[in-house]
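Check this:
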Amino acid sequence: MLLAVLSICATQAELIPISGIEAFHQGDSLDGDGSVLDVINGTGMNKVDPEDPSTWTISSVAWQDDWQGFQAPGIPDNTWAVIDLGTPVVELETMYLWNVQEPNAIDRGVDEFEIFHASEPVVRPPRTSGAVTPYDFSSGGWTSIGATNLARGAGIGETGQAFDVSEAAGARFIGLRLLSAHGSTSRVGFGEVAFTDTVDENAVVPGEPLPPPPPPPPPSGPVLIPVGIETFHQGDSSSPGNGSNSRVIDGSGMNKVDPDDPATWTVSSSAWADDWQGFAAPTANGNWAVLDLGAPMVLDRMYLWNVQEASALDRGMNTFNLWHTNQPTVAVPATGANVTNYEFSSGGWTLLNPDEPLALAMGSGVGDQSQSFDVSGASGSQYIGIEILSNHGSTQRVGFGEVAFTIGEADLPLPLDVAYDPLTDSLTLSWASEGGLHYRIRSETDSSASVPIDWPVFGGFADIDATPPVNTVTFPKPVDGLRLFVVESYPAPPEVVFSDDFESGATGWTVGNDGVGDNTAWELGSPSGPGPATANSLVNCFGTNLDDTYGEFADVWLRSPVIDFSATGAATLSYFRYIDIEEEFDGGQVAALAAADDSVIAILEAQIEGGPAGWDEISYSLPAEALGKEIKIEFRLTTDEVEQFSGFYIDDVTLTVP
C-alpha cells in the first residue's frame, strides 16, 4: 500500500527593501515631516506583520506622514515618482500603495497613475528638491506595465491596495507617472509604498478594468445611511474633513435618541464643521448631490436636516427635486474643490416629484428635528439625486446638514426547493402554496441588478394558480452559469360568484311590502320619474317607484336569489345606487339574510339617506356571520307620512370571493 500525504502551507511573504526614492517635488520638506521619504520609511503605519504589507494599516492621518508634491497632475511629465529597490529583483510580485490620509487633503491623493519598470534607465531621474522637476519615462530604458487607479484615502485602519507588478520581475527601478488626483488642483501625492515577492490574490492588474467593489451588507435595521456621496462642490474641505459633504452622512452633530428611528434624531451642534455648504448659490444644473445607497433598496422615507450654522442659516437648501436611478447613463462627477455641473436629464434618472418641487425648512439650530419625505416610489434604486433649486436667501452658498433613510417592507421570497433531473436536464421548483393566492417566478443572473421584486418574470410563469399544499413547476435547466430564482405571491384576482345588471329580467329576485302603505314598490325597468334619468348601465335597474316618488308608510324590500357561501371564508358585495331619501325620518337599509327563513344575519348598512348626487358604487366586506352558509342580500326602504322623495335605486349587483 502506498500512502501519499499532501501538505498545503501558506506562503510566507518576504518584504522587498526599498533603498531610495526620487520625486517631482519634495513635499512639505526635503527629508523631514511631509517629505517624499515618508512614503518609504513606514511612518504612520501599523505593521501587524512587518514582512507582510497586506497586514499593514494606517495608524496616523497627520500631514507629516503623507507626501504631497507641490503640483497637480495635468502638465505632461511634471508629476512622477521613481522607487529604487537597490538591485534587480527577480522575485518581484506585488506592490502595495496607501493614499494621502490628511483629512483636509484627501483630494490630493493620486487617482490614476501609470506603472513603469527598468533595470537601468538611460536617463536617471533628477534628484528631489523644492522645485518641480519634470521627468520623461520615454527617455529610454523604461517599460510600461499599464495605468490603474488608487482609491481615495479612508483614514485610520485602511489597508493597502495591492497591484500586480510581476511583469516588472528583474527590475531595479519602479516608476509611477501620476496622471490625476482625487479632485485637487494644487497638489498630488500618496502615503506609503511597499513591495513583496508574494502573489496577492486581490491584486489589481494594471491596464485592466478595476473589479467592482463587493456590495455592502444589507442594513441590519430599519435605518439606511448612504455609503457614499458626490456633490457639486466639496464644501469647506475635502471628505472626510470639517464642513465637507461627507458630514451629511456621518452622523456628526446629531443626537440619535432612538438610533433606529430618524424621526427622533435632533441637531446637537450648530458648528459649521458639521454642515455641508457648497461654494455656489443655486443655478441651473449647478447645484446637486447624489447619494449612493450601496445597492438597490426598498425605501420608505428620507429624512433631511438643514444647515445649522447660526450665521449661515440662509445657505440652507430650500426647494429641490428628487431623482432616482439604479444606474445613471452619464457617470456622476467626483466631488472636488471646483464647482462641477451635472444634469439629471442626461439619462437613466427618474423624477420622483413631477408635480411640484419639494421644500426643506430653514434650520433652527440645536434641537431642530428632521423633515421627512416619502421616497417609496424610488424603491429598487441605488442612487438618489437631489437637484437643489433654491436656498433661503444666500447669494454665495447652499447645502444641508444631514440625511438618512428608512427601509420599506419588501415581500419576502418564499422558500424554494430545487431538484435537478439529469435524465431530462430539467429543474423542478416547488414551494408551499396557499389557497386564494397566485404566484410568479422571477429570475436574474445578477443579484445586484435590482431588488428581487423587480426581477423579470421567468419562462412565462406569470400567473400560477395555487394548488395547496404544494406548487410545482418544471422547465429545462438554463444554460447560465449562475441564475437566481424567487417566487412572488400575491392575492388572486376576485372571483365573481354572482352578478346581475337586470338586463335579462329579475330571475330569482323577489319583492315585498311589510308596511301599511300600499303605494310604494320595488320595480324593475327604465326610470322615468323624478329619480335618475337612466339606469347606471344600459337600460334596466330596480327602484322604488320608477315613475314617481315613494309613498307614505312604506316598508318595501328587494331580495336577491340564494347565494351559496358555504365554502367561502371571505366575500365582497358591490353595487351601484342612486338615493334621494328624506334624512332622519325615512331610510334605506342593506342586510344579509339566512336563505332558509329570511331572518336577518347581519346589517351591512343601517341608515341610508340624503342625496341626490348621481349613481355611486358601494362595497361591503361581508361579516363572518354571513359566511359559511347560503344567504340572500336584502335592500329595504322605510318611510313616514311627512315628505316623499325620489327613492332608492340599485343596479349592477356583484358578489366576489375572496
